[in-house]
Amino acid sequence: MQTRKSRHQLYLPDHLSARLDALAAEPNNSKTAIMTDALGAWFERREDLEAEQQFGKKLERQARAVERMERRLDYLTEVVGLFVRHQLTLTAHHPAFDVATRKLGQARYDAFVRLVAEQAARSGSEKAGERRIPGKGEK
Length: 139
Description:
68% helix, mainly alpha
């Protein structure tokens, strides 16, 4: 199957013409093939630039939104991790609550809430799990 081709007459600067002649002198190369490849690459680059201009800002905005969501997810993961650690390690198998135990529980809960608030204020600069929640006899 033959492809339809149009003849074009081009004027090139001498230095480009010399380079084209040298490249076309190599085996299995022709000026037509070289110019076809070069012009095709030029059109593709131009289309890529147009697409970047059209969609680039929207993609950047979406990327920033995804980064914000990831930060929030990291924060929530830390909070849930702290809460689970708190529940499993500090409040497991307690006897019936008396006044002292209730006060200790309230102190631990207040420490947990304070720790979460500090984590939110730090905005992820330090892992919340490195801080200690007061144990029995501590405030």
